[in-house]
Design goal:
Number of strands: 6
Number of domains: 1
Strand content: 25-35%
Oligomer: single chain
Strand order of the largest sheet: 1-6-5
Order of helices and strands: EHHHHEEEEE
Distance between the termini: 11 Å
Shape: globular
C-alpha cells in the first residue's frame, strides 16, 4: 500500500493561474477546468485538484505519469475518483478537503490482489 499527501495554498494557485494562464492547460484536463469554472469561486476547486494530482503522483512513486495524465472525476454520488490518462484507476482512493486558505488531498494506492 502506498500513500501520497499534498497541501497547497489556494492563493498561490490563484496567483499562478492569473500570471500564467497556460498553466491551466499544462496541468488540468478540459473537464476539470470546466468543473472548476462552474463555481462562483473556482480557486479552491483548482487548488484541491492540483493537490490531488500531486498526492496521486506521490502514491504512484512518481512513475513517469505527468500531472495532466492524472485527473479527478466524481461518481454519481459525488465521491472523487482518479483517472489516469482518461481511465479509472480502481486501486487508487482519494480524499479531498479545502478551507478558506488551504486545499489538501490524500491518495491511497491499494495493493494488487
Amino acid at each position: 500500500m502506498d500513500i501520497g499527501l499534498d497541501i497547497v495554498e489556494i492563493r498561490r494557485i490563484r496567483r499562478v493561474i492569473r500570471r500564467t494562464p497556460a498553466f491551466l492547460d499544462r496541468v488540468f484536463t478540459k473537464p476539470e477546468i470546466a468543473y472548476c469554472r462552474r463555481h462562483k469561486d473556482p480557486w479552491p476547486h483548482f487548488a484541491v485538484r492540483f493537490a490531488a494530482k500531486e498526492a496521486v503522483w506521490k502514491a504512484l512513486g512518481q512513475s513517469g505519469v505527468a500531472l495532466k495524465d492524472i485527473s479527478v472525476a466524481r461518481d454519481s454520488r459525488g465521491k472523487p475518483g482518479v483517472l489516469i490518462k482518461g481511465r479509472r484507476a480502481r486501486r487508487l482512493k482519494l480524499s479531498l478537503s479545502h478551507s478558506e486558505d488551504y486545499a489538501a488531498a490524500v491518495a491511497l494506492q491499494e495493493d494488487a490482489r
